[in-house]
């Protein structure tokens, strides 16, 4: 699988960032113009889809079984769900059990719910 990313910069999400030769560009126009950015947060696609067919990226907040909010993160070579101590590998869940409800950048208030859950 070819790695797929999206990017968070300032208050905006960019769905098709370009990473070339160690430099980051928000889109191909920036690449062609040579405009790079610092302070961008890249989020990698996990290879997993939620129950609605939406791609799950690192940094997404998902609802598991319709009752538990959890953050998706990368650790020790695997994407994980922050649901148990140490996390549970994302591949342990079926797509039908997961629903994206936001992400940690656009919806920081969801992190409070994750921490209090």
From TrEMBL:
Domain YopX protein: 34-112
Protein name: YopX protein domain-containing protein
Organism from which the protein derives: Streptococcus suis
